[in-house]
Amino acid sequence: MNLNIRRYITQSLFTLVAISFIGVNAQEIEEITVTAQKREQNQQDVPVALDAYSGEMLQQSSIKTMADLAGMTPALDTYQSQNAGFSSWGIRSLNTSSQNFGLESAVGAYVDNVYRSRQSSISNQLVDVEAVEILRGPQGTLFGKNTSAGAVNIRTVAPSHDRNGFFEVVGGDYGMVNLNAAMNTSLIAGKLAMRTTIFTADRDGYVTNLSDKNGDKLNDIDRQGGRLQFLYTPSDRTSMRLILDYAELDEVCCAALTKKNNLAHVHTGAVVPGTDSIISAAAPNGLGLPITLESNFNKQEVYLTHAPRSQAEDSGLSLEINRDYDNFTLTSISGFRSFETEDFGDVDFGAASVITDLNKLDVSSFTQELRLSGDFDTPGERDGHFVLGFYYHSQDVDNNSTLTAGVHTAPMLNNDP
Fold this sequence. Notes:
The protein is mainly beta and about 425 residues long. It has one domain (about 5-20, about 35-255, about 305-405): Ferric Hydroxamate Uptake Protein, Chain A, domain 1 (Beta Complex), CATH 2.170.130. About 5% of the residues lie in helices and about 50% in strands. The chain has 4 helices and 23 strands. The strands form 5 sheets. The protein has an 11-stranded antiparallel β-sheet, with no helix packed on it. The chain has a 5-stranded mixed β-sheet with strand order 5-10-11-8-9. β15 and β16 (about 215-220) form a beta hairpin. The longest helix is centred in the N-terminal third of the chain and has 6 residues, at about 55-60. It is globular, with a radius of gyration of 25 Å.
């Protein structure tokens, strides 16, 4: 159970401190505004299979990451590999689960209308979010880019001229401490507003590496980032929203637990029958290394020669311009993204020093969307709506993977069982 302490700052600088334990409370039905059809609508009026969550719902349910959100969304799955820099999402069990960094997911990821080609780039905290929409099924008509399984549309809180904000502290097990804060500032009354958002997330590791004499724990959390936004409204018909964001992580993660219960070979340490003379801890010609843990169910323990390490930096800039005319709205959305990771892992998953993998990924992208939308009268009782658009996406991917053989590689290859 987590303890949330959230401090709200209002225009009169009056401070309200709310301390609560998150639980299941009876709530009134909340009206949620969605943009699944590229315009603001009530969720109940949208003929699209979707799950929508407002920022208030996320806060009340203590949803901080996409993995948390998957726990309350039946159609959404999240997958984590052996490094924190790579994760993927699935909708209705459809996803791209390969760790090939040249492949993009079948679930399109969008933050403030800008496409994110790597879902791991937004695996950090869901902080200062206005709404999250999970669109089930193909969304190629309006979203287009890699949405054969569905799309996840995340909208952050936009700047306003109201002087308000919040400061939040979340604590939990294993020394978990999350600090989140946001503040609105009116720079030019009625014209220019700024919103600043920052976050940090820290937690100690909980997996013991039995090969490490120091007993260091694996699978910790060390993430931080921020977002700076400007909203400029020179007239009632024109608005410009500039967003700059940055996030990083540096973690000893993610060790995969070997859930073996091979009772026939527990004491020899062999992974499968027939390999005793190569890697068994008991065989005369073996390496003398314990490979399989005894009844490893419900144990947070691994044998790794090298601890996994993940580092990632995600940054971007986007500009959205909206111009309203009498019967239509012209929208331009430009986005620049940069995502870099460096991951190191013991990919043989055992105490033998067989092979390690150092993977470096550098992704840079540019997107440009032009959209013309509006309403028109029809002979019937319902008004018509149209959307015309142009979309451009350019991306550079540089991936370098280095596999290194360990001291036990040759004995395992040369020893004939």
